[in-house]
Amino acid sequence: MSNEIIEKFQKAELLLNNNAFSEIKGNNDYDYLINELIEYIEENENDQYIVTTQTIRNYQDNERQRIHEEIKENPKTREIRANQETPYEIVMDISNKSYTDGDINDLNKYFNDRYTKLKKIIQENPEFKKITDLKNTKANIENLTSIGIVNSINNTKNGHRIIEIEDPTGTGTVLVLKDLEDLYESSMTLVKDEVIGVSGSSNGTLIRADDIVHPGIQRRIVDKKMDFSIVFISDVHIGSKMFDEKAFNRFIKWINGNYGDEKQQDLANDVKYLVIGGDLVDGIGVYPNQEKELKIKDIYEQYEEAARLLGDVTDIPIILSPGNHDATRLAEPQPAITEKYAKDLCNQKNIEMVSNPSIVNLDNIKVQVYHGRSFDDIVMAMNGYTHADTDKIMKLLLEKRHLAPIYGERTPLASEFEDYMVIEDIPDILHTGHVHINSHTKYKGVHMINSGTFQKQTEFQKIYNIVPTCGQIPVITHGALQILDFNE
Ligand code: D5M
Ligand code: FE
Ligand code: ZN
After folding, report:
1. What average pLDDT does this structure show over 231-240?
2. Per the omega criterion (within 30 degrees of 0), is the bond before 322 cis?
3. How much distance in Å is there from the Cα of 376 to the middle of ligand 1?
4. Looking at CB atoms within 10 Å, which of 40, 197, 220, 393 has the fewest?
């Protein structure tokens, strides 16, 4: 251990005197202290080459007094913002809609609602207007269509696929022959608990599928008019040692018109809304041994710090939705973060706390915000998918018209009377986060965005080989995407 400490300083071309060495060695989180000290010295005392206890005191004073550089709006930005309208409407928010007491009947109601909503969407397809109840499929029927929730997916020993589906009347066993290559291939992306339509014929025991359909979405031909910009961030993880405060400060400077080249400043002046898609703070007790990676170990203080950092953005609406690290119910849909934990944020006039998921209409642009916890389940369920495949995952979710189709795995779902995770209306923008990896694609006219993170790689993510894209911010400007990079 001793050598390790000395070597770390040597690498940074620094020497340690004995007292400083003893003090650092005695610190129970000396790895972190060393990194912080080296960074402090490089930035503030780069003429020093010997680290003494005085250097440590200086570093501590600097940390304590680290008066947040107040990031005021550029006067030009202020003027633009003072003279512009920023109308918005919360279209869907479940914060005050949680009724369930976790009864098994609630679970039935929940799945019935999921079935009813998605069946209705599937039935927009004329072929599925008239369907056969699954209880009536136990006979020889030449051409039938049915709609059901997927109960299980299995392969037969001959390599065909058996999918058990269920509707309120009963169950049906669907056979997908491997020789129907296209169908077989597309059945690879089926997941448990999603709602599908099946067309085929029944021999009394099995429904041999000719086709399987998802609720799906229609392609949008014409883009909506949009003469402004919306900024999307998520997974800031304030309070984590890995939170990149410097990149975040550059971001705040930019959004206030004080950072970047002229083009970037013009873009900032065009911004009318900021959307935050969850994991604003790192929280506490979210994963084993998290406290070792926390710089701020108190949840209230994490939100105070968040309020301080966002407090400089005063003249555009900030839509703030929670994630699995935030202080609200973990089961989705998650109610908005409340005053109990985040008083200052709740009191900030331009911050609108919404649920996860939620839908907001920002000057006629409809944005669906969903943190993205269910992506973990999709990655687990789908062969060959990784956390970097968010574009593919978002496309699947849009086709399934459900934000978290798989029930009972890593994503805890509250068995509400209504399934709020169904994508009933197609948004113009689907904004997700959670995986800490940026992505953007347009699918059938819908912008699908994952807004990355401001948190550098954690120990947990190292194990899962998740390489975050830190400080890269997607902006939808006049209907097109731009990524801004706040790394130096
Ligand atoms: O999630 C940060 C990253 O870690 C994200 O890429 C998902 C991944 N993650 C989080 N929880 C899990 C579990 N339980 N299994 C696999 N991968 C996971 P964050 O929500 O910020 O911690
Ligand atoms: Fe996160
Ligand atoms: Zn998350």
Report:
1. 98
2. no
3. 7
4. 220
Distance in angstroms (rounded) separating the CA atoms of residues 244 and 248: 6
Q: What element of type H or E holds 142?
A: strand 140-155
Instruction: Please state whether beta strands 358-362 and 88-93 pair in parallel, antiparallel, or not at all (unpaired).
Output: antiparallel
Give the integer Cα–Cα distance in Å for 393 and 439.
11
List Cα–Cα distances, 412 to 216, 329, 348, 405, 415, in angstroms: 24, 10, 30, 11, 9
- Cα(276) to centroid of ligand 1, in Å? 18
Phi, psi of 372 (to 5 degrees): 115, 20
- Residue 12: strand pairing partners: none
264 φ/ψ angles, rounded to the nearest 5 degrees: -70, -35
What is the amino acid identity at position 2? S
Share of the chain above pLDDT 90, in %: 82
Per-residue pLDDT reduced to its tens digit, 85-103: 999 999 999 998 766 666 6
Q: Where are the beta strands (DSSP E) in 74-125?
A: 88-93
Query: Cα(192)–Cα(404) distance, rounded to whole angstroms?
Result: 11
Ligand 1 near 241 CB (within 6 A): no
Which residue is associated with the tokens 């509250």?
Answer: 414
Going by alpha carbons, the residue nearest to atom 7 of ligand 1 is 435
CB-ligand 1 contact for 279 (6 Å cutoff): yes
Atom 12 (ligand 1) nearest CA: 376
Query: DSSP class of residue 126?
Result: G
Q: Which atom of ligand 1 is nearest to the CA of 435?
A: 6
Closest ligand 1 atom to residue 461 Cα is: 4
Alpha-helical regions (H) of 181-240: 181-186
| In the block, residue with structure tokens 């369930």 | 100
pLDDT at 81 over 60: yes
